[in-house]
Amino acid sequence: MRNPIPPSRRRGRRIALAAAALTVALSVTGCAATSTAPEPSGDAPETVEPGSIKLGIAYWDTRTYAFQLMLKGAEAVAAADPAIDLESAAPDAGDPSKLLPLFQAMSQTQTDGIVLQTLAADPFYRPVQQVTSAGTPVIAIDAPPPADAGVDLFITNDNVELGRMLAREILASVPEDASGQIIIGTNGPAVPPLMARVDGMIEVLAAERPGVEVVGPISTYGTSGSTQENFSAWDGIWRQYPNALAYLAPGAQDAVSLALVQQRNDVELLAGGMDLEPAAIEAVQDGYVAALVSPEHWLKGYISTKLLAAHAESGAEIPVGTWDTGGLVVNADNIDEVIARQASDAAMSEALAAVGDEQIANSADYIIE
Question: Which Pfam families match (predicted)?
Fold first, then answer.
């Protein structure tokens, strides 16, 4: 099997299955809290009373690390501006019927602006329309908002391009005249952003390696989406296609499971995935995953919250359209830098706040439609 990272990079650490999860579980059904982000690092406008800007972020669930990063970005803005009173709310597991009442309750108090991240837009149509009609701006991040509900800005990624980025990175280790199979699996077969990434992968694979057969996308979700089911699915895929040239996925849990398949079966696979869950980062560091593509979720929370704060404090206009925050390829060349960046809230803020500020200052360059 091909592996672009020498076996010598593998440091012998085992990735425990429990650590392979996308989630950090909380024991409550719903969660609402005032921000407790790091100490402020900037000066708030002197004319604005501390805590007078009422902002909120409502997101899909508290478990998934990608969503936690979005929250951390929002909290970084509140930490730097004492004028902001930021409330966050999410259920412990993705369920629109649980998120919706949290959003509605938040809209009663956080009337200067709300950031919304939901993977099920339709149930939010009327509640969001009521909020925006009442004068509270809503910015959607990560996944599309309900159509025609008064949400004028959607901050996300070009997910097709993220898929292209991963495919190109992996193909650097696949000869141009290669023949064989490349497997694509996904634990989110019904999640539009993930399937858009798959589309990008397939596009590049077909164009740049016409002699290679693309197998998939194969669902690795199972019946409940658990980490054990995901691992079992990938273990079965590997046994069915043990000689595949590469194994790709649009999410982090798949990447972690591919690392476990290699560990438990003592094989070397060329594997790639997405997102920056700690276990996925460790898999890159240890050489089990050749590359991840980070959607840079922290920036979504940061940019959206900072735009709402500026709108509330000074009347700054909120841009209209779809905002692409871009992505980052993570591989053996930059893994140590990424690990250091992700080590703490303060480190993320130090590394990424300037990136978000640059995008805000040049917003027209990031509006893609």
Answer: Peripla_BP_4
Cα–Cα distance, 15 to 188 (Å, whole number): 22
The H-or-E segment that residue 329 falls in is strand 328-330
Query: What span, in angstroms and rounded, lies between the C-alpha atoms of 319 and 363?
Result: 8
Is pTM, for the whole model, over 0.90? no
Closest CA to 326 of 117, 157, 155, 154: 157
Contact criterion met (CB below 8 Å) for 299 and 324 = no
% of the chain exceeding 70 in pLDDT: 87
Confidence at 47, pLDDT banded by 50, 70, 90: low
| C-alpha span between 234 and 258 (Å, rounded) | 7
Compute the C-alpha angle 52/65/172, nearest 5°: 125
Q: Regarding beta strands 291-294 and 328-330, do their DSSP bridges make them parallel or antiparallel, or are they unpaired?
A: antiparallel
> Could you please report the per-residue DSSP string of 108-162?
HH-TTEEEE--S--GGGHHHHHHHHHTT--EEEESSPPPTTSS--EEEE--HHHH
Tokens 């690390």 correspond to: 65
Q: In what order do the strands lie in the sheet with 53-58?
A: 30-34, 84-91, 53-58, 113-116, 138-141, 153-156, 321-324
